[in-house]
Design goal:
heterodimer, A: mainly alpha, MetI-like fold, 2 domains, 3 strands, 6% strand, B: two-stranded antiparallel sheet
Chain lengths: 356, 293
């Protein structure tokens, strides 16, 4: 920063104090409280004093193990099979409730796969948390590249010199100024399995060949539907950021490329893309941070269902911290979320760093 | 030859516009459907979805859905709450964040640089990761009210306002803008014996129109459109409920889709109108968040 005019400690503090105080009180303090609460059994309202519990909250969320189940055999050593010819296995409960395996106590089956005659079962201390974690990561790893890429395509479309192009820019950006809560309810109708607009449009476009789908009621399509809608709503935002990056590239560079006989692709590859480096890093980090925070869509559209297929970390943090008044449980999920966000943004910064 | 290239050019132009129009339809159709449907009786709304009539204001058109929605829930109150909360927060935010940025940029005080770095570091804390501890925190904070000191901020206006006034992005936007103002102006005013407050008030603020517009638009959108998670967990009573949370409760009443579309339109039309009138400023404000510091 440029040199200050004079030393003025008192006025300086006085002017900065209100905003700095509010940020300290409502961002920095709760941030550290999250870490603190995650080590206790703090509840919103409780007659009992709060106790320090160490890393117990983390252990119960993150506990994960793989167990191997051998098929049931009859007295002759032959594998017992059910009506469909699949081997029968002992229930997972026989292990997680057994005194022989205290380390697996209270864990539940998350998923399993077949390995020879045996079944390998992944058991987790908190299956819903694990599903929320995987769904959130899926959401981020799909939305970040797809939304970033589509936004760049839109920015390139809008950056053409055509009459009336501003009208299209206005339209592409329009969903950004509509609340995600409104958009979520609106798309609930669009995705509806019976009267839904999307099914009708797809049937119209395929002359009735398309089979209607209950987009949000189906475990295979629910998360994808939320992802598509989220991209539709937010892509205009990042289009504008790409556009401001595109407009910083000097036109003389394109003229030079044209004189050199560069093709359109070459001009993009060697002029546009290097000029967008900083913008690309920024867009990627912003989308990643926004995607990790996904909440309203899930709360309005699916409540985490069907069968937990759209659970997310923030939704779980709220359900526990607010719904069950379990401040420590919600805080623990918040801390884990923060650490994941931090790790991924540091990784992105590292991967996209200026190479010397 | 000339004619051939002319044709070719015309064709390419047509293809470009076709692509633009198709993309525009993708972005438009849900919003057009929402606005048009809010005018139709629910039975017609549902039957129209199987044809292009879904996007046309045809058939039995009226404002009956709006009247019914307003009768069913105190939507007027929710709109008032949201606008009140937005206005107070935006005004307080513009004032306090610009004042702090002024101090960070022009005033020389001990710790200036470190405090600003700490403020900017909070940019990487998503609000969603502090919402739950903040819920407990505000449920215990004191507030001086009509009847003396009370503890607990739940179910009030100020719990929806005070935590949102100051944020790193707004401070950052002002700092960026102030850095580029000509220093001679401030030095000249200082030489004439103006106090720092006078310089802030009479010299810097009158020049800050663009950044004030940017910060106001971003904050307004945040407060009016995106406030959902926080009021959902800190406001249970209807008297202080903002419009987005009201929408969630409204939908749970299992009302007809026509009324839901009317409620959605009531929320959306003012913002869309603002956007269409001030679109340059809206787009410039989003673009300025992309300026690297």
């Amino acid at each position: 920063m440029a040199s200050k005019l004079t030393t003025s400690n008192r006025t300086g503090w006085l002017f900065a104090l209100p905003a700095v105080g509010l940020i300290a009180l409502f961002i920095i303090v709760p941030f550290f409280l999250a870490f603190g609460f995650s080590l206790t059994n703090q509840r919103l309202i409780s007659p009992n004093p709060t106790e320090y519990v160490g890393f117990e909250n983390y252990e119960s969320l993150l506990g994960l193990a793989v167990i191997t189940l051998e098929p049931e055999r009859d007295d002759g050593g032959n594998i017992l099979r059910d009506e469909e010819g699949q081997p029968e296995y002992p229930r997972v409960r026989t292990i997680t409730r057994s005194d022989d395996y205290p380390q697996y106590r209270g864990m539940r089956e998350w998923f399993r796969w077949q390995s020879g005659d045996n079944a390998r079962v992944v058991i987790a201390g908190d299956v819903i948390f694990m599903k929320a974690l995987v769904n959130t990561l899926t959401f981020v790893f799909v939305v970040a590249p797809v939304q970033g890429g589509l936004a760049l395509c839109l920015a390139l479309l809008i950056n053409q010199k055509l009459r009336g192009i501003n009208v299209f820019r206005t339209v592409f950006f329009m969903p950004v100024v509509v609340s995600i809560v409104v958009v979520s309810l609106l798309w609930r109708f669009i995705y509806d399995g019976n009267d839904g607009l999307l099914n009708n449009i797809l049937q119209g476009l395929t002359f009735g060949l398309f089979e209607p789908v209950d987009w949000l009621g189906n475990t295979d399509t629910a998360l994808g539907s939320i992802i598509a809608m989220s991209i539709w709503q937010a892509v205009g935002f990042h289009m504008v950021i790409w556009l401001s990056g595109l407009q910083t590239i000097s036109p003389t560079l394109y003229e030079a490329a044209e004189i050199e006989g560069a093709s359109k692709w070459q001009a993009f590859r060697y002029v546009t893309w290097p000029g967008l480096r900083n913008t690309a890093v920024l867009v990627l980090i912003v989308i990643t941070m926004q995607s990790f925070a996904v909440f309203a869509q899930v709360d309005v559209m699916t409540n985490g269902g069907p069968l937990d297929s759209t659970q997310t970390l923030v939704f779980q943090a709220v359900e526990r911290g607010y719904g069950k008044q379990d401040i420590s449980g919600g805080s623990t999920i918040s801390v884990i979320l923060f650490l994941v966000v931090l790790a991924i943004s540091l990784l992105q910064r590292y991967l996209t760093r200026e190479k010397a | 030859m000339a004619i051939v290239t002319q044709d070719n050019h015309g064709l390419r132009l047509a293809v470009r516009y076709l692509v633009l129009i198709l993309v525009a339809l993708v972005f438009m159709f849900p919003l057009v459907f929402m606005l048009v449907s809010s005018l139709k009786p629910t039975a017609q709304l549902l039957s129209d979805t199987s044809s292009l009539r879904a996007f046309l204001p045809v058939g039995d058109i009226s404002l009956e859905n709006y009247a019914a929605a307003f009768r069913r829930a105190p939507i007027g109150l929710f709109v008032f709450n949201s606008i009140f909360i937005t206005l107070v927060t935006v005004c307080a935010s513009l004032f306090l964040c610009s004042l702090a940025a002024f101090s960070f940029t022009y005033l020389n005080w001990k710790g200036n640089g470190i405090v600003l770095s700490v403020i900017l570091a909070t940019l990487i804390i998503p609000f969603e990761t502090i919402a739950i501890p903040l819920l407990l925190w505000v449920s215990r904070l004191p507030w001086v009210g009509m009847e003396g000191i009370e503890f607990g901020w739940l179910n009030t206006y100020h719990v929806q306002i005070v935590p949102w006034i100051a944020d790193a992005l707004t401070v950052f936007l002002f700092v960026q803008f102030f850095k580029d103002l000509p220093r001679e102006l401030i030095e000249a005013a200082r030489a004439e014996g103006a106090s720092w407050w006078q310089i802030y008030r009479r010299v810097v603020m009158p020049l800050s129109g663009p950044v004030l517009a940017t910060a106001a638009i971003l904050k307004s959108l945040k407060m009016y459109n995106e406030q959902y998670l926080w009021p959902l967990i800190v406001v249970q009573d209807e008297a202080h409920r903002p419009i987005m949370v009201g929408l969630g409760y409204f939908f749970q009443l299992n009302v007809a889709w026509g009324e839901v579309m009317a409620y959605l339109s009531v929320i959306t039309i003012p913002v869309l109108a603002f956007y269409l009138v001030l679109q340059r400023a809206f787009i410039a404000s989003i673009a300025s968040t992309g300026v690297k510091g």
